[in-house]
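Example (one chain per record):
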Amino acid sequence: MSYDGILLGMGNPLLDISAVVDQKFLEKYNVKLANAIVAEDKHLPMYDELASKYSVEYIAGGATQNSIRVAQWMLQIPGATSYIGCIGKDKFGEEMKKNSKLAGVNVQYYEDETAPTGTCAVCVVGGERSLIANLSAANCYKSEHLKRPENWALDISSLLAFHHYSFRLLLYVLSSQPKVIFLSWTVEKAKYFYVAGFFLTVSPESIQLVGEHVVAQNKIFAMNLSAPFICEFFRDVQEKALQYVDYVFGSETEARTFSKVHGWETDNTEEIALKISQWPKASGTHRRVTVITQGKDPVVVAEDGKVTLFPVILLPKEKLVDTNGAGDAFVGGFCPSWLKRSPWRTV
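Predicted structure:
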């Protein structure tokens, strides 16, 4: 089996601005510990304050991109993963492209000329992190970019229509510059897809397109609940997307918010995971698997009407740096089980 372009992620690429802060800093900007939110006007000064008053680290991030980079690192197979999202035409965008390519990920960014590359303040207090995302260009992604022939499908007729090549010119391009045409990270070529719930706030149309494609082509689609506010304020588009999803990931906080929003009247993560796994699907080919993490407590997995608990190997507190990206890394570590066709229980 070819691994070329087999895993595709779509999401909001953000440059993380990470720093260790104190509780007063969070209170100043009305930010809760261990939460993830989209920046409002009141949060915008925090980015300059972080950069000027704290020792910051810049990291190419965004939830989906984090997971894809971890999956690529674990696979160690060149060209196995790809990623689509929107960045700005600026120095941060160039840094993002460079870092992602160094990680071995084939990135197909849509570059917006009017908005700067998105950023995310990562505020770490006592090992716990709070995320405040200023989407900027990441919020400008359009499904038209996804539908471009070089991103969706390698089809000569569509290439003719898209590029307005004459047949003779197309033959010349194919013979002289094959790498320009034969891109390996198209939607058609991917067999597995992963999207964080944050992308529902930007381009639910793209998720719908991929969902329909996955069902039609009998592929695998995974999504993350990502944050409580996604479950609360983007319920309609989340529900519409869930019908296509084969693997649902989330934390216990997100799962309980999902339960509350849907009136299930239970905080029991095992019951919630089971209910999510039984959510109606557009295709019955694959049974849905729901995976709920609970920090140091066992991981809850629901499949086929059964719940299994997997104990967590505890890390000594002195070895814990912070929790930023922990959930993203968990998903990134899970993905290779699909690609290598290993039972997910061995992950």
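Caption: The longest strand covers residues 81-88.
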